[in-house]
Structures are given as C-alpha cells and as structure tokens.
Amino acid sequence: MCGDVFFNGTTSESGDKTMNRRTGNLTNYHSHCLYCDGRANMEDFVRFALSEGFTSYGFSSHAPLPFSTAWTMEWDLMDDYLSEFHRLKAKYAGQIELYIGLEIDYLNEESNPSMIRFRELPLDYRIGSVHLLYNDKGEVIDIDVPADKFRDIVDREFGGDLVRVVHLYYERLLKMIGLGGFDIVGHADKMHYNASCYRPGLLDEPWYDELVRTYFAEIARRGYQVEINTKAYHELGTFFPNERYFSYLYGLGVKVQVNSDSHYPERINNGRREALQALKKAGYTSVMELYGGEWKEIPIYYSRKECQNSFLE
Ligand SMILES: [Zn+2]
Ligand SMILES: [Zn+2]
After folding, report:
1. Has residue 5 been placed in a domain?
2. How many domains does the chain have?
3. Of 60, 183, 248, 262, which is the most exposed, with the fewest CB atoms less than 10 Å away?
4. From the CA of 269, how far away is ligand 1's center (Å)?
C-alpha cells in the first residue's frame, strides 16, 4: 500500500504532510536553471513541478570552476542562487518541498567536490560529476558533447585512442569518489553512449564491462547514491547509467534516485516512469527521495494509477 514507507531517519511535520501527498515518486534533484545553463528561471521549474504533482524538488546548478565557461555558475552569483532558493522555499512551503544542491565537477585535485569552499556552502545535497578531461597538452577538453563532436575530439585530441579516453574518464570518476564531498554520483557512465557510437559493441567488451563493474563496486563500498539520469532517454534511448547495470547495482546494495537533469521546466518528468519501471524489473522496490530534509527510501509507485489502486486493496 502507499502508506508503506521506510524511514531512514527523523522527519518533520511538514515533511510528513508533503510525503503523504505523493502520487508516484514525483521527485527530481538534478536540474539546471538560469544560474548556469538552464533555460528558465528557478521559479518556472517550481511552478511546472507543482503542475505535474511533484512533491519534492531540488536544484543543482553547475558549480563554479576555476575558469569561466558558458555552462557553469560564477562564484559571484552564489549568494543570489541561495537567496532566490530560500525565497521560493518560503513562498511554496506546504505545496512542495524544495531543496538546494550543486552539480560539482571533478576537474583536478584542486577543484572537485571535496574542496572546502564547496563543503562550507549551506546545501542540502551535492552531485559529483565528470564532464571534463585533459588532453596531452594539458588543455581542458569538454567530453560531455553530442556523439559526432565526441568522435572529432577523440580523433583530434587523443589520437583516435578511444580506449585511453574511456580509461581517463573512469580514472577521474574514481578519483572523485575517493576524495568525496558529495552524495550522489551524477550520470555515472555518461560516456558510454558516445563511446558506443564511436565503437559499436564496446559495452560487451570484457575489459569495458570489468572497468565499469569495478567502478560501481567502489561506489557501493563508499556508500554513495547513484542517480538514474533520464535526460537523454527519449532522444537516445538510454539512461545513465545504462540499464544493463541496474541489477548489478541492486545486488551491490546501491541506493538510487531518478533524476531528469532537466534544463527546461517542461522536461522535468521525462523518462521518469520508464526509469522506475526498469528499476523494478531489476529488483529495486524503492528509490531515494528527500522529505523533511532527510533522504528516505520510498517504495516505487511508477504510476499514479498504481498508487491509487494500492489504496483500494
Ligand atoms: Zn552533468
Ligand atoms: Zn546536470
């Protein structure tokens, strides 16, 4: 039944109220607004989340890097980011639970989620992600790009050595995981789509499978959550991580949450239902959601209908 909730910690009264209104795991903690490269302001996302029946919602702008980019927030906007969030949290209190986070890049040993400057920020959660590699000249290369551009980058910046690029990517993720300072691994194997376009069949190659499974085992050992990132599901037909690892993650005991990594308000719910169904198929019976300021294991109800039906049973 819908009231069958597993509590991980204490809860607040407002958390209980919002949680009891949930109608099907309608949450998202990975989204980008105009403080970074999102395409609408924070309040537009909140209003759309409300219209979709979401009960808990979080923002995760791209954290500042040591240099300017078109997609990251600058440090001088951080106070505005936090105060706009608090304005909305107060304005919409009782209607939806709002949370504030950041998606923080692992760039190098000096700039990553473990930095004291990030740790000191009053955030509800942090997502750790890798979007950048260094080429042989020590230049920063953005590899979180469309597949055709990725192919050009591998050929031009890394001499066509895809295997090396894949190793560089997972080495950096493992370094990030070792250093800590975050709660959720962002789009854990995102490179798999582009790398598979470059070299079809890659995911079935034993060395690749071994590399990714070792990486997930390390994530499990350190106790991070993994998001099921649905951003590209409708467009590319895959989640990050790829669905083939869901049952492995379940077996490792890794806790998961479903996030749309949306840059547009109207996309916040994209792929959520499909991800929840895939998780159920892999053995998962719950996902992590924030209520009353605590991560809780919430049973998977992947449709409103299913939730209502279970009330009738
Ligand atoms: Zn990202
Ligand atoms: Zn993102």
Report:
1. no
2. 1
3. 248
4. 17
